[in-house]
C-alpha cells in the first residue's frame, strides 16, 4: 500500500508542474515537449514499480518462512502422535501379558495349596501309623520281658530292635516332612504377595513405564519357574533316581543333574533312602590342603577319601530340595549326626552356604541363617585373613578356627600340651560347648521327594 502511494504522488506532482509550465512550453516545438514528458513519466513509473517489487519480494520471503515453521510444527506433532500411539499399544500388550501371567500364577498357587493339603493328609496317616507302631512296641516289650524269663527265643529280641529302629526312622521322616510343609507355606505366602503386587501393577498399567513392566514380567517368569521340570535326562539326576530305578548296592554311579555335564558320585543306600556323598574322611590318605580350583573341581578317590567339588554340589542343589546330612565319629568310636535344610550360592558368591537345622544328635557347629562363604588358603572371603596353621583345607566359615571338616588329618588323640594346635585336624566346635576332635566324617545329600506323597 505504501509503495502504491509513493508511485501516485510523483505522478500527481508531475501533472501539476506540467500544467503550470504549459504556457511556457507552448512556444517550444511539439516534438521536443512530448519526448521529455514521456521520459519523466517512465522514470517515475519504473521507480514505483521497483519499490513495489521490493515490497512484494519481502512479503513473499516472510510468508514462506511462516509456512515452513508451520510445516515443521506439523511434522513434530505427527511424530509425537505416532510415538504416543506406539507406546500406548506396547502398554496394552504388556498389560495383557501381565494379566495372563497373573492367571497362570494363581493356578500355580492353587496347585501348591492342593499339594500342601495332600501332605497334611499324609502326615495324619503317618501319625496314625506311629501310634499303631508304639502299641506294637509295648506288646513287644512285654515279649522282651518274657525273653528274659526264658519264655521266648532270641529271635523276638531282634524283632524288637529292628522295629525300634524302624519307628525312629519314621519319626525322622515325619519331622522332615513337617519342615518341608512349613517351607511350602512360606512359599505360598510369598506368591500371594507377588500376585497382589502384580494386580496393583495391572490396575496402574496406563501410567507404568515400559521398562518397569518388562522387569515385572521377568519376576513373574522367575516365580512360574518354581518347582518346574527341567530338560529330560536319560541318566539319573542323583542317587535318589538310581534308587528309584532299582539300584540297591552302594557304590559309584554316573549321574547327570539338570543343566550339567555327567559325572561320577558315590551312592550310599539304606532300606528306604538313597544318599549322594559329597565328602568323606577316614584315614588321612588324601591331602585336603588344596587350592580354590581343586575344591571347585573336586579331588580324591570316590571309594576312599574325597571332596566331590563345589561346582558339582551346586549343580545338584539347584535341581531339587535337598537335606544336608553330616555324620561324625570321634576317636572313641562314638557316632553322631546332624541334618540341615540349605541353599548354596554360585561361584560369584564364593558358593555361600545358608543353613537351617532339622535334626541332630549333636549341637550344631555351623551358624544358622547366616551366609557362610567358602574359603581356601588362596581364596579367602572378604575381611577373612587367617594364618596358615588355622586355614588348612577349604571350608564354609565366617571366622578363623572352630569347625573344619576338611582340615589337616591328625591321628594324635592325646591332649598333651604342644601335640595339638588350635585349628588343626578334623574339628566340630558348637557355639556353646567343647571342641570335638574327629576320626572320620561323611557329608551327603538326600533329596526330598514330594511326589511320593501324592
Strand content: 15-25%
Annotation, overall tally of beta strands: 12
Shape: elongated
* Overall average residue pLDDT: 77
User: SSE order, as H and E?
Assistant: HHHHHHEEEHEEHEEEEEEE
DSSP helical segment count? 8
The end-to-end span amounts to: 99 Å
Helical fraction equals: 40-55%
Largest sheet: 10 strands, antiparallel
Q: Residue ranges: pLDDT <50 for 5 or more in a row?
A: 17-33, 211-233, 413-423
Question: Would you kindly provide a written description of the structure presented here, covering whatever features stand out?
Answer:
This protein is α+β, with helices and mostly antiparallel strands and 454 residues long. Helices cover 50% and strands 15% of the residues. It is built from eight helices and twelve strands. Strands 1, 2, 3, 4, 5, 6, 7, 8, 11 and 12 form a ten-stranded antiparallel sheet that branches. It is elongated, with a radius of gyration of 46 Å.
